[in-house]
Amino acid sequence: MCIDGAAFARAPLTEAMHLLDWEMVRRAVKQDSSCAAFHAGWVVRDGRAFLFAGEGASGKSGLCLKAMMRGFRCGAEDVTFLAGNRLVPFARAIQLRRDDPLLDGIHSARLFEGCDGRVCVEVRPEEAAVETSAATSTVVVLDPTADGPARTLSPLEGLQRLLGLCHRLDRTGQTLFDTIASLAAAGRVLVASPAAALALLDPPEV
């Protein structure tokens, strides 16, 4: 595959498309100073947004799909875009490992081949989110080793953990920094295992 006339990678078609996807994301963020992005998925229901932040294989995609099964709309499953303090939808197909039990409940018409041997689940238009405020969202940093319920991070730790997830896009950006700092200061950045994060979506009624 070539970009701007230079060799970028040699890979099977599905992997090449994935690499091209990331390159377009990187360039879009780099060229637009009003836009920032970091490694997270997000869902929203009734104006209430949850961001699942984490490295690859931390459980973001599975959580987004489980949230959709609970009536949430998907804004993104891997890359979250911010424009000012707004979450900009970037809902692509959700990629899962071929042996993920979540696939058992998905109609085959919604499935297609992804990269790295994964299977993609189509996100239908009625399941996709619209632009949403980030100011009142809850950010969950996924940690598969975490025990117990979700824990609120201190403002400093929340800021450090989230800024550490910006490296893949070669840009932090003042917009992203300000938004993350505001959420961290408000105690809206948590750390949780995927199971504990899922429990946050439907808290028990009091």
TrEMBL record:
SUPFAM superfamilies, sorted: PEP carboxykinase-like (SSF53795)
Name used for this protein in its record: HPr kinase/phosphorylase C-terminal domain-containing protein
Organism of provenance: Blastochloris tepida
